[in-house]
Amino acid sequence: MSPPAILVAILGLVGLWLPLVQFKPNRIAAGDSLTLAAALEAGWPVALGLAAVLILGCLRYWSPRLRIVAAALGIAVLVLSLGAAASQLVGPDNKLARVSPASGFWLMLLAFSLMWADGVTRMRPSLRASWLMLAGALAQVAALLLSGQLADVSVMRELAARQDTFAHEARAHLILAFGSLGLALLAGLPLGIAIYQAPRWRGPVLAVLNVLQTIPSLALFGIMIPILGWIAATLPGAGRLGVSGIGMFPALVALFLYSLLPVVSNTLSGLAGVPATARDAAAGLGMTRAQMMFQILLPLGLPALLAAVRIVLVQNIGLTVIAGLIGGGGFGTFVFQGLNQTAMDLVLLGALPTIALALVSGIVMGLLVDQSRATRGQA
Amino acid sequence: MIELRNLTRHYGEVTAVNDVSLTVQTGQIAVLVGTSGSGKTTLLRLINRLVQPSSGQVLIDGADTASLPVHHLRRRIGYAIQGDGLFPHRTVARNIATVPRLLGWPKSRIDARIDELLALFQLEPAAFRDRMPHQLSGGQAQRVGVARALAAKPDLLLMDEPFGALDSVIRAKAQSDLRDIQRQLGTTIILVTHDIQEAVQLGDRIAVMDRGRVLQYDSPAQILTQPATPFVRDLIGPTERAFRLLSLTGIGPITMPGEAHGTPIARDATLRDALAECLWSGRDALPVQGGGIVTLDALRANAAQDRQ
Q1: Domain extent listing, chain B
Q2: Distance of residue A126 Cα from the nearest chain B Cα, in angstroms
Q3: Is A343 left (phi over 0), alpha (psi -120 to 50) or beta?
Q4: What is the per-residue pLDDT for A377?
Q5: Do residue B79 and residue A285 have CB atoms under 8 angstroms apart?
Q6: CB contact (8 A) between residue B81 and residue A284
Q7: How far is B282 from chain A (nearest CA, A)?
Q8: B267-281 as b/e: b if 16+ CB within 10 A
Q9: What is the pLDDT of residues B81-100, one digit of tens each?
Q10: Chain A nearest C-alpha distance from B84 (Å)
Q11: Are B72 and A286 in contact (CB < 8 Å)?
């Protein structure tokens, strides 16, 4: 018996017992909850199949590879069941009824994801294999979404009704998250290098950035409104440059400020972590300060820098949701609209792509960090 | 020829190096030896201006180095440090190529020089060129570090505890290899160590340092037989002195014709090796490979002669 697999099995079996979907005659009416076995025409065999996979997964001699395959199959079956249940419950011409995933679905999704993660951890895949698995997982998700099997699930219905705005908000979300990261790198890298070379300034600079980091996100977005609003109103030309109290500009500024601390402190620790002997040798062999920085310090500090990019990217993709509150755009727009209308499906339309984006970015950056370490023999 | 004139370095109240003057002849090895905190490493770093002198001059072949920009000066002076200091993200070849690249040598010349040095240090070029530093053993990394320091044919090679990170077996081999390579290339070397045995073995001249001053700058035999101060005598270790002295001389001069029993001793062995063998095997005379013998009496007579 394998302890993580037992946890997975318990979670999954509870998920099977809990409702898979919630069926509502319209978007805001109260609805009925149905378990997988009840929601699908062929529900019992599917449920028994999933239960069998979960229970057999507890066996110790299951190889990591088998676990990954079983988890991928489990997720596919689960998601397809959701789509099929939605189509069967709603019927062909019903535009109002909604079928949304319920607690059982999420719990089973969690269970199979854990099974996947457990398999991957035990397998200790090479970098190449990790990239391939990531690509495989993304292809699986894309295939499921594009197949049309999920078209009758509530979230996809919300999406179908908002194709244009979704593309627009997705673009805004990416601009905010990656744009603020870019700005933070532009400002934070030189600042990190500067305080590395002038140790007297390390304390004060890091203290200021620390304070910025501790301001709660909602408060920071809030305080941007009067400050930037005042600047836009008073400074001639500021408004024309896009400075304003609400909208994308304050969101970008706030995200930029949050990103500075991780970028600056990781730049500093990356440079400071370069072996003293390598620095001594570089100076002793006659490198100028600039040559030492670009040929020795920055390449050797790169893993720490990439780790900073990873932290900032994942953090900003999540924080960008709050930009929706002040009209900054992004997936947060759907989340807050949904909250206002108590339409959970709309909240999910904003939340799910945000989670997916953060997850994929985190994994990609993690792999890049490993790769940069591997080529330096620091793995 | 390297001349240090009245070199001094203060750190606030502390004087790390105090008015040091000494001359190293071209092609010689000068060893700076002393306890930790004696200022030997600071003195070494004053020469390539990793530490700026508070006062004093460094002359290379009569020319004052203070007029050169530091990075130009350092490219003319090889620098090898304890634990090799290789750049972990660069291959062996790229590490060795560091100074030639800074000097803008053409690629073909750099490549030829890398292979030449690897061969000189008994590292098969084809096998080692593209290795990363973490794929080298301690001894190999140390050799690559010295090869890198020698890459641009410097006038002078500075070495700071170059064998400090090696275990004793590899260290002995590395020391004798360095001696051989230095004789082949005729490089002038200034080497820092805290190990008096290493100093005696490698140095043409030894400078004993304490609290920023050079107490004595002499040949190893002079230092061993005529210590200038009680500190120098203590550093040598009075009980070790006789053996260190014996290790300076080969058995050649005291080999005499004759016959002896047992395993012969190598022709290039030192007096110390011969004494050890006599004591261990309980013999009064040893045959020498290729003819002749070394006797315990001759060894004793030789030691008595040194003492006077």
Answers
A1: 2-234, 249-307
A2: 19
A3: beta
A4: 54
A5: yes
A6: yes
A7: 48
A8: eebbbbbbbbbbeee
A9: 887 789 999 999 999 999 99
A10: 8
A11: yes
In this structure, CATH architecture of domain A163-374: Orthogonal Bundle (1.10)
Query: Could you tell me which of B181, B175, B150 has the C-alpha nearest to residue B162?
Result: B175
Confidence of residue A379 (pLDDT cuts 50, 70, 90): very low
H/E element, A292: helix A289-292
Report the CATH fold assignment for B249-307. CBS domain Like (3.90.1280)
Q: Which two tokens stand for residue B140?
A: 């190999």
Are the beta carbons of A281 and B74 separated by less than 8 Å? no
Q: What are the Cα distances from residue B160, in Å, to A196, A312, B41?
A: 26, 42, 7
SS3 content of chain A, % helix, strand, coil (to 5): 75, 5, 20
Q: Which of the residues A277, A279, A285 would you substitute to probe the B interface, choosing the one with the greatest number of B C-beta atoms within 10 Å? A: A285
The rounded radius of gyration (Å) of the Cα atoms in chain B is: 21
Task: Give the tens place of pLDDT for each residue, A144-168.
Answer: 888 888 888 888 888 888 888 898 9
What is the C-alpha separation between A256 and B165, in angstroms, rounded?
Answer: 46
Residue ranges of domains in chain A: 3-154, 163-374
Chain A interface disruption, residue of B74, B96, B98, most A CBs within 10 A: B98
Contact A67, A57 (CB under 8 A): yes
Number of Cβ within 10 Å of residue B304's Cβ equals: 9
As assigned by CATH, the class of the B2-234 domain is: alpha beta
Confidence of residue B149 (pLDDT cuts 50, 70, 90): very high
A254-278 tens-digit pLDDT:
889 889 999 999 999 999 989 888 9
DSSP lists the bridge partners of residue B10 as: B15
CA dihedral A141, A146, A151, A156 (to 10 degrees): 60
Contact state of B88 with A287 under an 8 Å Cβ cutoff: no
**What's the pLDDT at B280?**
86
Question: Which residues of B fall within a CB distance of 8 Å from A283?
Answer: 50, 74
